[in-house]
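Dear colleagues,

For the upcoming journal club I promised to circulate an example of a predicted protein-ligand complex. I picked one with NAP because it came up in last month's discussion. The inputs are reproduced below in full, followed by the predicted structure.
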Amino acid sequence: LSAIILDGRETSNRIKEQLKIEIERKSIRKPKLVSIIVGNNPDADVYVRNKSRACEKLGILFEKCTFPENITEKEIVNVISSLNENSEIDGIIIEMPLPKHINANLLASTVDLSKDVDCMNPSNLGKLFIGNPIFIPSTVLSIMTILDSYSIELEGKYAVIIGRSNIVGKPAILQLLSKNATVTSCHSKTKNIREITKQADILIAAIGKPRFVDSTYIKSGAIVIDVGVNSIGDTIVGDVNFEDVKETAAYLTPVPGGIGLLTTTMLLSNTIKAFNLHI
Ligand code: NAP
């Protein structure tokens, strides 16, 4: 058995084509996304450059707002408030991590709900919780979209997620539940993790540990989604040991070229959703 590769690039290209057509059809104005970076944040710089390029290709305006490390919380809150009021702006993202003196939750709570394309505002997460979201966090949307593109049915399936972060693991639980999967969440304090993951029809790894999941974690014929993005020297590897798992899994996302690649596209999809709410 060799797994079918869930190709993030192909899915991403198809969605980008649809988004491009949608943007071209609307002549009122162009959608606009603003990214806020505070202090020295080289990781965010790379992500922001990728977002900027992706926006440009689709005809979405992109603006990077960079602030010095010593800016006060109040000053950034004021910046966000004025972006909220600007009717030419559709999406606002706050790049993490933030300097220690700035409360990320406070900033996220300031972003207008209809512009919160990264779904960081606790009120938007609350809407997700009750099953009535405006936006779904882009990484989770990417997971759901790739499963859907390969017509993978979720109802009645047993899904196990390793990782319980607010941006990936927890919202993924809610989305899988909304599709009638049965869901278990595992984390660093879970005992006998393999006994749990080996039952999974769908295993999602969002851990941040290079090649953590090998074939001993997997049931034969499972669907394996690798969210991890880990740098080893110049290479990027996932949380799943791809070479080892590909003989056991039925479907598998590669890293790179899987979830990460699609996530930027899903952020743009959320931006177009916001644009449609504003025009
Ligand atoms: P995070 O906030 O660091 O959370 C990691 C989670 O993994 C935590 O819940 C942690 O458990 C769990 N964990 C750590 N070690 C474990 C172990 N030995 N056994 C079981 N669980 C363990 O990370 P994140 O932000 O969710 O990101 C996870 C990975 O996805 C990273 O590689 C990140 O770069 C990547 N990522 C990718 C995208 C994308 O678009 N592809 C987007 C976001 C993140 P505790 O809660 O008990 O500490």
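Two points we might discuss: The mean pLDDT is 96. The longest helix spans residues 259-278.

See you all on Thursday,
B. R.
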